[in-house]
Amino acid sequence: PTYPFAKERYWIPLSGHQQAVNATSVTQLHPLVHENNSSFTQQRFKSIFTGEEFFLNDHIVGTNKILPAVAYIEMFRAAASLSSDEFEPFKLYNLTWLKPITIGEKPEQILVELSVEEDEFNLKAIVENNGEQTVHAQGQCLYLDSDATVNKLAPEELIFIDEISQRLEKHAHSSEIYRLFHRKGLNLQASFQGLE
């Protein structure tokens, strides 16, 4: 422009994928919980995943990028933690995975909702499509007062990995296990290969 404050813009328009990437790169509350969209009546958090995240690139079932079950657990924990200044989430329980979330060509928006019914804190992972909501996972959360001691598990609830491994009769090398997973259609990449 030959004069200041010209109204014309000369920016290259962003594609839908680039807009989604930019939307998720703005300040996030947590790597898996991006925005707080709560109202007076509903605790709700929103995340947008493009399919380029490492946990989606490395978790492939068949040929599809599937949100890993552990991601739902962390989303629920983070949402529960972000929902209260007074209490800390202590235990997630009654977790149910109803339908996998597949991330395809376009970014996917996932909602985590928290509700209270008769002193129970309920969590849901939801995808909205054409005005319809589909619940993909659900569970409940037990909160503890932040002043309470951290370890409140009863002795019968404690799990010791060494004791479990001593009871195992068969042993297999990790490469054998991942080959079996691959034959069954679970194509775990490097970040999901934690077996030794």
What's the end-to-end separation, in Å? Answer: 63 Å
Q: Please tell me the overall pLDDT.
A: 85
Number of helices: 5
- What is the strand arrangement across the widest sheet? 1-2-7-8-9-5
What percentage of the residues does DSSP assign to strands (E)?
25-35%
The low-confidence parts are none
Write the element-wise H/E pattern from the N-terminal end onward: HEEHEEHEEEEEHHE
Question: C-alpha Rg, in Å?
Answer: 21 Å
Q: What class, by secondary structure content?
A: alpha+beta
Multimerization status: single chain
Number of separate strands: 10
For the largest beta-sheet, the strand count, sense and barrel status come to: 6 strands, antiparallel
Structure description:
The chain has a six-stranded antiparallel sheet with strand order 1-2-7-8-9-5. It has a four-stranded antiparallel sheet with strand order 6-4-3-10. It has helices at residues 16-25, 54-57, 69-82, 161-167, 174-183, and strands at residues 35-36, 43-49, 59-61, 64-66, 87-97, 102-103, 108-117, 120-129, 132-145, 186-188. The chain is of the alpha+beta class and 196 residues long. Strand 8 and strand 9 form a beta hairpin. The longest helix has 14 residues, at 69-82. The model has no long low-confidence stretch (mean pLDDT 85).
Secondary-structure map:
Blueprint: H1 16-25, E1 35-36, E2 43-49, H2 54-57, E3 59-61, E4 64-66, H3 69-82, E5 87-97, E6 102-103, E7 108-117, E8 120-129, E9 132-145, H4 161-167, H5 174-183, E10 186-188
Antiparallel strand pairs: 1-2, 2-7, 3-4, 3-10, 4-6, 5-9, 7-8, 8-9
